[in-house]
Amino acid sequence: MTVFSAFKIVTVMLLWAACYPLLMIGIVFAPHLSFATLRAVIAGLVLVGIACALRRPFPRDAAVWATLVVMGLGGTSLGFLGMFHAAEFVSPGIATVIANTQPLLAAGLGGIILGERLSRRGKAGLFIGFLGIVGIAAPQLFSSGGDSYAIGIAYIVLAALGVTVSNVMIKKITGRVDLFMAMGLQFLIGSIPLALAAGIMEKAAEIQWSFTFIAVLLTLAVFGSALVYILWMSVLSDVPLNLANAFSFLIPVFGLTMGVLFYGETLGFLKLLGILLAIIGVVLVTRKGAAQEANAPAPLYIAPN
């Protein structure tokens, strides 16, 4: 992995860590599904607009379109549905922690679909990183309870499953379609089920178009969605999914750091230990922790026209 690739991955994780706190602010001003739809549509239009301005090719392959549909339904429809609803029931810190079961799910799917495997060191790194996540979450997990908390956890798991499927599909089409066009189209495709559900279950008139809401919406759409997914897809063009996903354990570290700096949160022994384990886990996986099956095709990268 190059230094530039590592920098892009860390940037992605930092932006993802900021999403849940912003969601907590935004859902006060808009119904969940309407908010999610707006975020997806804006992100999709921005990326497709850039692709058209740069005269990037429109996908023609039916197999690519089928993959884009799966990506949209997974990463955008299910991912946004889970994230936006979870923000009502679970604190941002817990949300980022539970969402980071995703690398473990991706490791399983990546092995089955992509032929990627983790070495013993990589498996140990994932396990240690997950222990770190548990350590970070433990104080709040044992102090929280109730049906609403369980509902929030279920939504986060749903989001993690959707994002996992989307990540595996991104890896499959990398090099076969332009990055901007692919990610923009999957956002627009994924926004359709969200829009239909919002039209049935919510009222658009309930959206409060305040300066705060517009600022949060644009930040999430442009930086937390469009920019993040372009960086992420470019990373997956030359980095194994398991290796890139290992950095997801940094998200709760960034989230807790933001809490300390901006929300006055304190870090106890378990959280500090969890941060240390998460960092150790990332180091183990990134230092020759990912291996690819010899008979699995290497991902092809074709420079955009």
From TrEMBL:
Keywords: Membrane, Transmembrane, Transmembrane helix. The keyword Ligase does not apply. It is a multi-pass membrane protein. GO terms for cellular component: membrane. The chain crosses the membrane at residues 12-30, 36-55, 62-87, 93-114, 126-143, 149-170, 179-201, 207-231, 243-263, 269-286. Residues 7-136, 151-286 form the EamA domain. InterPro entries: AA-Vitamin_Transporters, EamA_dom, EmrE-like. It is found in: Membrane. Coiled coil: none annotated. It comes from the Bacteria. Belongs to the EamA transporter family. This is EamA/RhaT family transporter.
